[in-house]
Amino acid sequence: MRQFFLRFVRTLHITRVLVRYRLDDVLYFLPLLKPYQAILRLSPMAWLGPRPQGTFAERLREALETLGPTFIKLGQMLSTRRDLLPDHITQELAKLQDAVPPFPSNVARQIIEAALGKPIEMVFSQFEDQPAAAASIAQVHFGQLLDGREVAIKVRRPGLQRIIDQDLAILALLADLAERYSQEGRRLRIRAVVAEYAKTIRGELDLLREAANASQLRRNFSAEPDLLYVPEIYWDYCASPVLVMERIYGIPIGQRDALHDAGIDFDQLSRRAAEIFFRQVFRDAYFHADMHPGNLFIDPKNGRFIAVDFGIMGSLDDASQHYLAENMIAFFRRDYRRVAEAHVEAGWVPPDTNVQDFETAIRAIAEPVFEKPLNEISVASLLLRLFQTTRAFQMQTQPQLLLLQKTLVNVEGIARDFNPALNIWEVATPLLTEWLSRQRGPQGWWSEIKQYFPQWGLVLPEMPVLLHNILRQAQQGELPLVIRNNDIEGIRQELHHGLQKLTYGVGGTFIVVGLGIIAALEHRLDSPILNLPVWAWLIILPTALWAGASWVRSVFFRRG
């Protein structure tokens, strides 16, 4: 009951904010809320209160910022969904600020002590009360461990879990109603969008998961410390609401003047940004999915990238990797037939898709792009247009590809910002070609052998005995053959019912014909047909038909 009351109060607050920013029209697709619209229109608040300024997109951004962390993060995610929203809205949502006032340092101390189960003085020799950064999910303090190591301490905001759970429940309800009552809601797959978002934000709330993400990324680039550096995680001091990691010193990537003064090579920086992205995607199948300028720093000593904030990570399965590599290489070669075939082979579009029509649609979006110089072609924009086109061929939304497209937009923007003449294709093509040869050539075969050899070692000793048993049963005629298939069972049921209908239909036809014969013979039942009286045929034909149908049913449709 308490949960219901809290959600009701939160719903009223959300409604009030929507009305304040004149966004309440988005709710009136529900028949249930139509009378509510008239009530709000008559409310003094609607015509005496201050009138918000700006376009619909600007008012939407301001409303989301007012509603707090859940809606700020939702808006940031929607800013990457240009397959769902118009460009003018996504561009405005991209301006959403995640900076919020910090919570008191004494509360941060209490959260740390409760999570680690000991006084803060037993963990840190120094703890800076003034936060270094504050965002909607957590804030960061600097400190020093007892052994002298400098650390950054990330602390989750108090009470955030309850608020976000309430907001997600409300969003899930609205999404369900939107798909139930709105054709546009069904087209946009609102429930899937909300479910994807709920999974993302719940992952950000668990700082232990973020710590694991950082450790994995650090391990992936351990052999290339001059390319990307990931701070070390100090696991002894981590819990769900607290993350302690190595403190890094770097220049924020947005401070171009400071980078220039440090002697950083901008051309090398842009190439490294692109190389980091493609190595994450095609070598590791695991990538930092929030690589905006606020999360990236440059080491002034050697110009390497330093990444922070690992709450959102993306991963790709083998099919997704092949899909991307095949498509990007085929696009570069303008082999649109191969692009269409790669979609079908990966299962992203239905197998009965007309490949020729698909190829024509892809050529229509790609040819205008490739008329530009290669250094002006945006890989991210090309992928976005591809995703938008494939929707017409029933390609369902793939969350991992959307995360990747968002990350590619950020990385490509950073790379082009430092070197507008950078040819992304020049950086990507060698890495893609190397990855494909490694997956399909002898090296790929040898990797698969090494991967599955332990499993083969467990199965091989059993093979002679199993093979002997199968051959013995086959020789003695005892080898069972069992075929189970739901589709075959469905066909069998349909044939069964069809045969019954046919039996009744033909039997009825014979009876009607027989009655016609009787009428034609003016009820002379003793008139012979093929040396048999009419009344005998009226008995023989239906009986024979029924017997034949029963035999067919017993042979082909008997239950095992």
TrEMBL record:
Molecular function in Gene Ontology: ATP binding; kinase activity
Keyword Zinc: no
Pathway named in the protein's UniProt entry: Cofactor biosynthesis; ubiquinone biosynthesis [regulation]
Parts of the chain that traverse the membrane: 502-522, 534-556
InterPro entries membership: ABC1_dom, Kinase-like_dom_sf, UbiB, UbiB_bact, UbiB_kinase
Keyword Transferase applies: yes
Domain of life: Bacteria
Keyword terms, alphabetized: ATP-binding, Cell inner membrane, Cell membrane, Kinase, Membrane, Nucleotide-binding, Transferase, Transmembrane, Transmembrane helix, Ubiquinone, Ubiquinone biosynthesis
Segments forming domain ABC1 atypical kinase-like: 95-342
GO biological process: ubiquinone biosynthetic process
Protein family per UniProt: Belongs to the protein kinase superfamily. ADCK protein kinase family.
Designated name of the protein: 2-octaprenylphenol hydroxylase
Lineage: Bacteria, Pseudomonadati, Pseudomonadota, Acidithiobacillia, Acidithiobacillales
